[in-house]
Specification:
The structure is a single chain. The chain contains 19 helices and 27 strands. It has 612 residues and is α/β, with parallel strands linked by helices. The protein folds into 3 domains: 243 residues, Glutamine Phosphoribosylpyrophosphate, subunit 1, domain 1; 204 residues, Glucose-6-phosphate isomerase like protein, domain 1 (Rossmann fold), CATH 3.40.50.10490; 151 residues, Glucose-6-phosphate isomerase like protein, domain 1 (Rossmann fold, 3-Layer(aba) Sandwich), CATH 3.40.50.10490. An 8-stranded antiparallel β-sheet has the order 3-2-4-1-10-9-11-15, with helices on one face. The protein has a 7-stranded antiparallel β-sheet with strand order 5-6-7-8-12-13-14. Strand 16 and strand 17 form a beta hairpin. Helix 3 crosses helix 4, helix 7 runs antiparallel to helix 14 and helix 14 packs parallel to helix 19. The radius of gyration is 25 Å and the shape is globular. Bound molecules: 5-amino-5-deoxy-1-O-phosphono-D-mannitol. 5-amino-5-deoxy-1-O-phosphono-D-mannitol binds next to helix 9.
């Protein structure tokens, strides 16, 4: 949440900051701003998108070879010009950008007000800025020492970058609980929430650890210390990201591009990790811990949102194949009870970003109680991947659309491999069944390609339903999480109220909602529950509901009942979510476009939820 970017070096900072903010805009987009040092401290900030900031900056002084920029997802204070970052200290000497939340900002503010400080915004960030200034003045220390002392006083999460008008040859960056990466160029540094603003300039990066701060000097020197003032040796890594992976590549939106990337990225996720012909699976992280995972009393899956839905699919698959008990927990709830977790449990934490605050907090609890943590993340080097004992990357490449699509399908593919590897190790699956599933898994990219050819047909269906105010998504068994995910996609980007339910639960309540205005989408690809699903469809039709059904080729029974059908290729039932989710992603996409919604940056949302 919130995107931050900074630059110091020989180049003009403004164009670098603006380009970086556009790449980070998926993290928050209610206001944006930059601060530049050019003998003076120039602040340009504006409510709205980065493009609004650019218009606001037209004709104004934008010079300076050191600067910081921010795109905001509001926490404290409404989106407005005043609450936009950067925030400036009372003396107008210091400027800060911040991603995160300072929890004890109210008490700090009270103290600062007593000492004569005034505040222009409602933000916690302005409080932190003035706390640093106050310490700098009172203790007569340099800016980095003031920042270090201040950060020892604050409670909460932050990634910050600070510049000082009196010290134009350095910028200071610090993190705790919010990501921050430093790009190293030739006598220049870039700082950002993720590598996307950096990748076109350098591939050499340092990921700052929690409770560390970096002082980046114009002469190319970099010092990293922890908050106890102990010097740290920077660990320089090579970025594996390419520029084209973070651009739209000819598509109108990132979401559409990412939906269409699914065949490729699933292939990437599986490559080198399985071979159907030879009957092997080798997911690096699982190999080492397979015995411990298989002997676990429970696998606790902790995740949020879409990642929680892939966890629900994993529950079906792991229990079916590896026969290990699985519980799927909302990480955001798990942390607020006193869960029973022991050293015999394993937590599988699933997260696209690897930065979700709730999932990190759930991991912390499970880790304290000695559970093994297995992280499944997309973003390489992310916090969750670093705090896990073992794990696997999904290799979906950068996912920029706020609504998760390719990250979901690669998570499901990886969890499938994990289940198969555990089952093979345990001997709970026959060699022939294992091969059969592996062969089907290899075919999945082609089947998704085929599902993608339905795009025009789905657009036609979208045109029939885009004015609906409500939607029900129903599925049985492994298709229940698919129903949840389909409903989440629709509500996130089209703002239509949508509910996902197990189809059998309909009669226990949701059936009361059904009338001629209620579209009900059935995911009806499971052979095992076909008759039951047909009965549920009959029940909806009997109450004049409109039925859209996702079916396999040649399902005459459902075709005869439904108002609209979407025919996806048939596959092994345990793998079917990978194919049946595709038309649901496309349907929500087209409905959102028809309602004039911004599919990549839906209102109120942010890609990476780094606040509680
Ligand atoms: O990065 P994570 O997978 O941990 O994110 C979890 C959720 O915030 C995320 O899946 C969210 O629900 C998406 N907007 C879904 O499209």
């Amino acid at each position: 949440m919130c995107g931050i970017v900074g630059y110091i070096g020989p180049k003009e900072a403004y164009p670098i900051l603006i380009k970086g903010l556009k790449r980070l805009e998926y993290r928050g987009y209610d206001s944006a701003g930059v601060a530049l040092l050019n003998g003076d401290l120039t602040i340009l900030k504006k409510e709205g998108k980065v493009s609004d900031l650019e218009m606001h900056a037209e004709g104004k002084n934008k010079t300076g070879t050191v600067g910081i920029g921010h795109t905001r997802w509001a926490t404290h204070g409404v989106p407005s010009d005043l609450n936009a970052h950067p925030h400036v200290s009372n003396s107008a000497q210091l400027a800060i950008i911040h991603n995160g939340i300072i929890e004890n900002y109210a008490s700090l503010k009270t103290e600062l007000v007593k000492r004569g400080y005034t505040f222009k915004s409602d933000t916690d960030t302005e409080v932190l800025m003035n706390l640093i200034e106050d310490i700098k003045k009172e203790e007569e220390v340099d800016i980095e020492e003031a920042l270090r002392i201040a950060l020892n006083e604050v409670v909460g999460a932050y990634a910050i970058v600070v510049i000082d008008k009196a010290n134009p040859d350095k910028i200071i960056a610090a993190r705790k609980g919010s990501p921050l990466v430093i790009g190293i160029g030739d006598k220049e540094f870039y700082v950002a929430s993720d590598a996307s603003p950096i990748v076109e300039f350098t591939k050499e990066v340092v990921y700052l650890n929690d409770e560390e701060f970096a002082v980046l000097h114009r002469n190319g020197d970099m010092e990293i210390k922890d908050l106890g003032n102990i010097t740290k040796t920077p660990y320089i890594q090579k970025l594996e990201m390419d520029l084209e992976t973070i651009e739209k590549g000819g598509y109108d939106t990132f979401m559409l591009k990412e939906i269409y990337e699914q065949p490729k990225v699933i292939g990437d996720a599986l490559r080198g990790r399985m071979n159907a012909k030879e009957g092997w699976i080798k997911l690096g992280g699982v190999s080492e811990f397979a015995t411990r995972i298989n002997n676990a009393e429970r696998l606790i899956i902790g995740a949020c949102g879409t990642s929680w839905h892939s966890g629900l699919i994993a529950e079906y698959v792991i229990e079916e194949l590896a026969r290990v008990p699985v519980e799927v927990e909302y990480a955001s709830e798990f942390r607020y009870r006193n869960p029973i977790v022991t050293s015999k449990d394993v937590m599988i934490a699933i997260s696209q970003s690897g930065e979700t605050a709730d999932t990190l907090a759930a991991i912390e609890i499970a880790k304290e109680r000695q559970a093994l943590i297995f992280g499944i993340c997309n973003v390489i080097g992310s916090s969750i991947s670093r705090v896990s004992h073992a794990g696997a990357y999904t290799h979906a490449g950068p996912e920029i659309g706020v609504a998760s699509t390719k990250a979901f399908s690669t998570q499901v593919a990886i969890l499938m491999l994990m289940a198969l590897q555990l089952a093979q190790k345990k001997g709970s699956i026959s060699a022939s069944r294992l091969r059969q599933i592996l062969y089907e898994l290899e075919e999945i990219p082609k089947k998704i390609e085929e599902a993608l050819t339905l795009n025009d047909e789905i657009e036609r269906i979208a045109a029939k339903y885009f004015e609906a105010e409500n939607f029900l998504y129903l599925g049985r068994g492994i298709n229940f999480p698919v129903a949840l995910e389909g409903a989440l996609k629709l509500k996130e980007i089209s703002y239509i109220h949508a509910e996902g339910y197990p189809a059998a639960e309909m009669k226990h309540g949701p059936i009361a909602l059904i009338d001629e205005n209620m579209p009900v989408l059935f995911i009806a690809t499971n052979k095992s529950a076909h008759e039951k699903i047909v009965s549920n469809i009959q029940e909806v039709k009997a109450r004049k509901g409109k039925v859209i059904a996702v079916i396999n080729h040649a399902d005459e029974v459902i075709e005869g009942l439904a108002d609209d059908v979407i025919r996806v290729p048939e596959t092994e039932e345990l793998l079917s979510p990978l194919v049946s989710i595709v038309p649901l992603q496309l349907l929500s996409y087209h409905i959102a476009l028809m309602r004039n919604c911004n599919v990549d940056q839906p209102r109120n949302l942010a890609k990476s939820v780094t606040v509680e």
